[in-house]
């Protein structure tokens, strides 16, 4: 499966954050849009709710800090849910 270029930019921004920042936020969920951290949340649900509230059906990245193998992003725009 091809990686969405917009999401890849957001992921690369996350990867550019310092290791110290990642240690301080380990296990939390970071909401990223336009290569900016939009918020840090204790759970995925809160991050998703904030992302939909702020960005609606636009793409955004939710990433669990310290979970290098899990990338979550909004697909509502693809499914027509919003």
Report on the structure:
The protein is of the alpha+beta class and 82 residues long. It has one domain. Helices cover 40% and strands 22% of the residues. The chain has 4 helices and 4 strands. The protein has a 4-stranded antiparallel β-sheet with strand order 2-1-3-4, sandwiched between helices.
Short description:
With 82 residues, this protein is of the alpha+beta class. It has four helices and four strands, in the order ααββαββα. The model has no long low-confidence stretch (mean pLDDT 85).
Features:
82 residues, alpha+beta, four-stranded antiparallel β-sheet, 4 helices, 4 strands, 40% helix
Biggest sheet strand order reads 2-1-3-4
The parts where pLDDT drops under 50 for at least 5 residues are none
Helix-strand category: alpha+beta
Number of helices: 4
**Into which percentage range does the β-strand content fall?**
15-25%
- Helical percentage: 40-55%
Order of helices and strands: HHEEHEEH
Radius of gyration (Å): 12 Å
């Amino acid at each position: 499966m091809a990686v969405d270029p917009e999401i890849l930019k957001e992921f690369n921004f996350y990867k550019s954050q310092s290791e110290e920042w990642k240690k301080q936020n380990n296990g939390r969920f970071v909401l990223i849009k336009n290569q900016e951290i939009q918020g840090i949340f204790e759970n995925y649900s809160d991050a998703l709710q904030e992302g939909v509230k702020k960005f609606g059906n636009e793409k955004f990245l939710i990433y669990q800090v310290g979970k290098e193998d899990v990338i979550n992003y909004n697909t509502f725009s693809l499914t027509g849910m919003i």
